[in-house]
Amino acid sequence: MKLHISPATTEVLRELADYFVATAKQAIATHGRFTVALSGGSSPKKLYELLASDAFKGQLDWTKVYFFFGDERNVPHTDSQSNYLMAKTAMFEPLHIDAAQTFPVDTSLSPAEAAQAYTTAINQLFGSEPARFDLVLLGLGDNSHTASLFPHTPVLHDESVGAKEVYVEEIKADRITLTAPLINQAKAIAFLVFGEDKAAAVKHILEDPRDIESFPAQLIAPVTGELHWFLDTAAASKLEQQTT
Questions:
Q1: What are the structural domains of the chain?
Q2: How far is CA 8 from CA 32, 61, 140, 146, in A?
Q3: Do residues 60 and 21 touch, judged by C-beta distance below 8 A?
Q4: Which DSSP letter does residue 32 get?
Q5: What is the pLDDT of residues 200-230, one digit of tens each?
Q6: CA-CA distance, 13 to 138, in Å (whole number)?
């Protein structure tokens, strides 16, 4: 695991954008494409807008990038809460990404059907190979959840490698999420976390005793891949060790 701690949010975003581009270029050079699972929420939106900006859009062959989602809310793709709509607006449309390169969760289905269909779509892309994303981007909630792996939900103990539906009682909503075993197969995983309100959660995940029911993001531990945390100093402020 490697910590990347920067003083300001803008620096965190730029460092992760540089890492995204470098990882993508390496994947494309190695096997002709780059597969990435995107995170939802307000923090990654800023990253996607940066990647689509003049400073970054010319650095990558975007026709070879295939976009999946780490989780999705059970809402239509036109809903303001949709992770797909956010990514489409912030990145896909500005970069003119072909629809064939994006893999949204089909939220017109029931949550269980949507999860099964998403698992099938992932497996079809990877074919006979294990489903190993080149990069999974993750955020962290102040309750220590990541993707839609929320505290005290059954999906935390799901050992399947795919997508799964989950009802989250604390927000009274259905979600579809990649399971921890699928995320952990990735070649690289990168958390993007900034703000003092996330400092306690960061400490729980990185330094507190293992308690996945309370701190689900502790489940994220790549089998053979890289794990990176991109933090600002506020988010890292409660850590006893800030270098690794």
A1: 2-175+183-195 (3.40.50.1360)
A2: 34, 29, 18, 22
A3: yes
A4: S
A5: 999 999 999 999 999 999 999 999 999 999 9
A6: 13
